[in-house]
Amino acid sequence: MKYILIIGAKNILAKEIAKVYAMNGYNIYLCGRKINEIEQFAKILQSEYKIITELRELDIEKFDTHQSFYSSLDPKPFGFINVTGFYPDQKNAEKSQDDVSKSININYSGPVSLLNIVANDLEIRREGFIVGISSVSGERGRMKNYIYGSAKSAFTTYLSGLRNRLSKSNTHVLTVIPGYINTNKNIERPKLLTARPADVAKDIFNAQKSNKNIIYTKWVWRYIMLVIRIIPEFIFKKLNI
Ligand SMILES: NC(=O)c1ccc[n+]([C@@H]2O[C@H](COP(=O)([O-])OP(=O)(O)OC[C@H]3O[C@@H](n4cnc5c(N)ncnc54)[C@H](OP(=O)(O)O)[C@@H]3O)[C@@H](O)[C@H]2O)c1
């Protein structure tokens, strides 16, 4: 049975993704900080879907641990899904370089550091897939979240280049661009535009299986972002968005 590896496995979306892959017969490495906190979840996946789960400690900000982390995996996974993210409060981040660095490290530099190692291996093996979760916030900078958005934008560009490179070696790269996901029950969001984590997970699995390159989830965000992108800058800069 093939293994997949989930980077940032403790949040609701990552757990839903793990469930979908478990249901479809994949063994799973669940990786993240204080990963033992989801030991019970890992055990339930094992017994319910008759697969193997392994918990691996990983801090995506600790770049110098990434090579030894990857070297320690045996067997090497077939697929990698990066779910890590950090959404700083925009107003705080305008004053705090710590928040800016954290946003860049968790949304961009950390995943790049690890995925570069993964990509070099998959390129030699000529197989596998990488899924990166970016955001609609990376499609155009807005006053309300451009510190987060600019890091996601860089990640989207990285995934595009990686897809271009790895397409020559039979390794597929999927970019996932979510709009709103109701991962946090305390945040009120428009129902029609907000996806359930379980639906996003299914979208990701289906898109990865059918070798899609870029998906928006919910799908309606593809058209919303099309409109957002074509608003002329002299109008866009005056909007309160
Ligand atoms: N929710 C939305 O509306 C929405 C919209 C668009 C895109 N997204 C993206 O979807 C993904 C999941 O979103 P979410 O709302 O579930 O985010 P979240 O609750 O903030 O989850 C982020 C995950 O990243 C992990 N993480 C943070 N720093 C880490 C580090 N240094 N090392 C390892 N793991 C680390 C967290 O683990 P810890 O438990 O250790 O903190 C957590 O599991 C993120 O990439 C997010 O940017 C979300």
Word description of this protein:
A seven-stranded parallel sheet has the order 3-2-1-4-5-6-9, sandwiched between helices. The model has no long low-confidence stretch (mean pLDDT 97). 40% of the residues are buried. The protein has one domain: NAD(P)-binding Rossmann-like Domain (Rossmann fold, 3-Layer(aba) Sandwich). Helices cover 46% and strands 17% of the residues. α1 packs across α7 (197-209) and α5 (97-125) packs parallel to α6. It has 241 residues and is of the alpha/beta class. The protein has helices at 12-23, 39-49, 66-71, 90-93, 97-125, 146-166, 197-209, 220-230, 233-236, and strands at 3-7, 27-32, 53-57, 79-82, 129-133, 172-178, 180-181, 194-195, 214-217. The chain binds NADP nicotinamide-adenine-dinucleotide phosphate. NADP nicotinamide-adenine-dinucleotide phosphate is lined by residues 8, 10-14, 32-33, 58-61, 83-86, 106, 133, 135, 178, 180-181, 183.
Strand content: 15-25%
Task: Count up the domains.
Answer: 1
Q: Would you tell me the overall average pLDDT?
A: 97
Shape: globular
**CATH H-level name... which superfamily?**
NAD(P)-binding Rossmann-like Domain
> How many E-type strands?
9
Order of helices and strands: EHEHEHEHHEHEEEHEHH
CATH architecture annotation name = 3-Layer(aba) Sandwich
- The main sheet orders its strands as 3-2-1-4-5-6-9
Distance between the termini: 47 Å
Helix content: 40-55%
So what's the CATH class? Alpha Beta
Query: What value does the Rg take, in angstroms?
Result: 18 Å
The biggest sheet amounts to: 7 strands, parallel
Structural class: alpha/beta
Report the CATH topology name.
Rossmann fold
Query: Could you tell me which ligands this complex binds, including any ions or cofactors?
Result: NADP nicotinamide-adenine-dinucleotide phosphate
- The total count of helices amounts to 9
* Low-pLDDT segments: none
